[in-house]
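Re: Re: token formats

Sure, here are both.
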Amino acid sequence: MVEPTNTPDFWFPGRWIGGTSMIIGPLLLLTAQILIVEFDFFFPQQLTAYHAHPTRLATAYNLFLAGNILLWPAVLTVARYIGQKKPMLGLWAGTLVMLGLFARTFHYGINHLAFQLVDVQNLEVATKAVADSYGAFHIVSVLSAAIMLGWIMLAFGAYRSGLLNLVHSICLGLMSALMLGVLKGASPVSVLCTAGLCVAFIPLGIRVLSDGPKPDSRNIILWPLAILGTAALMYFFGQAG
């Protein structure tokens, strides 16, 4: 059995990925909500809005999904910092929020299918299909509570551990009020929630990025190129599949 090398300074996902995701993820979520806030948030109106403005709605929903996916390194990083002083809070808060992120990703897969039904069938068929299947049980339904409670616990842990002050912790906790479920659009409340996430996470992300030595000048060039190249290959193979 090969013993792992002792590298005490290593942690996953690391400050560069964690800190960067704290900045980019919330901005994507906020942008997505602003793009569609003028439309009613319930699913028939969302499908109607997509039928009338397909590019705008598709862009907003994809931005939100990308931001939601990018939040996982941010959440793991916050849980790590909380756990250094409050281990149980860091453990449970991080776990619940991560489960909530999985649930939202699942919902956005359904959203994509519903929009495709508008394209390949028509608006009426898509609306009826969603209406007839709305509320159907799926295993991800059990994670709905995690979507709401996780952010509250993460905000509480960030405050109790001293990672965030009271104002920033409250802003973080606002994410618990963000609408959840299939084809949920935006509202002034959801704009406030994602703006609160920006207030809480972006300054913290900058602090995380500054918390350590600067990277080698070669890595500043090579790593972004490697990431972009990998993303391009993943997109190519995804489209081919």
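Second one below.
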Amino acid sequence: MIQRRTVLKTGAALTGALGGAGLLVPAMSSPAQATDLDPTTIPQFQQAMPVPKVLQPTRVSGTTSYYEMTMKEADAEILPGRLTRVRTFNGNFPGPLIKAVSGRRVVVKQTNGLSVPASVHLHGAHVPQSSDGSPMDLIAPGGGTKTYTYPNAQPHANLWFHDHAHHLESETVYRGLTGFYLLTDDVERSLDLPSGTYDVPIALRDARFDDSGQLVYSMGDFMKRTVLLANGRAWPYFAVAARKYRFRLFNTANLRFFTLQLSDGSAFQQIGSDGGLLEKPVDVTSVTLSPGERADIVVDFSRYAAGTRLILANTAPMLPGDPADQVGRVLQFRVTGPAVDTSSVPATLRKLPAPGSATVNRSFELSMDETGATMDAFINGKAYDMDRIDTEVEYGATEIWTVHNANVFTPHNFHIHLVQFRVLERDGKPVTSGPESGLKDTVAIPPGGTVKLQATFTGYEGTYVYHCHMFDHAAMGMMANFRVTKNPSTT
């Protein structure tokens, strides 16, 4: 087991670097007595990366598409030639994909066939409290059911769903309980972006295995999770034609940050983030994602000859001794040959409304014990209490939230349920363009860093949560309740 004090000695090298996520969380449980699988024995780039299966509705009406899912264990070939037990929606690993349309409801009946309670949160969605997947709104194990209603009363966005049962989500998500939810609208569909088989969602994460090929879970063992997965396969390859592709990247890891770039260092375009398209495409050579964040990119492979092989590399800062040939590689692209390409990336993608004027300013401080003496994590000095309302918000109010990471070594990030927000400032510098200028629901905050966010709380009244989306940190208490009401309490 990695000792927290040992990590602190090397963690200073990563201060201010987003790639050092999660290194300072103590292990809360010990894995079963088994020998770790040597990651160097896992063949790289031998399995094809699968594309998520599109889930078909069980019934369709004039206004609503109905789906049914069962959470259950299944076996998946994550490692070549081996089966690994995972937790899934409908037996799919990676999870299934729901394609939804703004203004058209989606209703999902979830059945929990697992041995532990679960709560399904549609991350980034604007939904009523009853369908938000609250950490304490649990579906009983062994066949319990709950029906979630998603009005889709929001613009297009790259959403995903995952377990959110408090104290359990860290392990359950690690073991696979995630899925994709792509919401589109007329604005997005009017563009000639790469589509169909050239529009590919990719879930990224890390993992650790024992010598029988089973996942090993121990909270906070970030440094031992050195096998990187793309759509549920360890270091896969993906065959691409010599044309443009749209890749929707999802960081579904518990703790790991990714900084992704092509192995030849060439540029590509970032066209979107959590809450859909940016106003204008941005030419970049890398994108950084903290847990829960998404990036929407377009890569043009027409500049490569048939037979070219490129690696999607992870260049996030590593600790001394980290295996670059493992955590530094994600997947391999194999260019096959030319293909007809009528797609294009326009100079303007969408028009976002101006943030408007805020009437309320609030401050939040994220912190956790870095001494190793406790396993405590806080927002504004308080650990999560399901029965406490930490923030009262007036329905319809536009607020500015200033969020500061008070830790010296440990990165955090910040996710707000119910709303998409705008990032106004990072460390006092205005954010007016670039990858963080669009709609967001999760934002990274390095040690000592501060972000200023603006959101309008409308659509639904009720109690929701904000928290660090590094699952282990939230499970340790870095989460709080806010209540939206037309008559907020003044106490």
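The domain at 4-27+192-338 is CATH 2.60.40.420 (Immunoglobulin-like). The chain has a mean pLDDT of 92.
- S.
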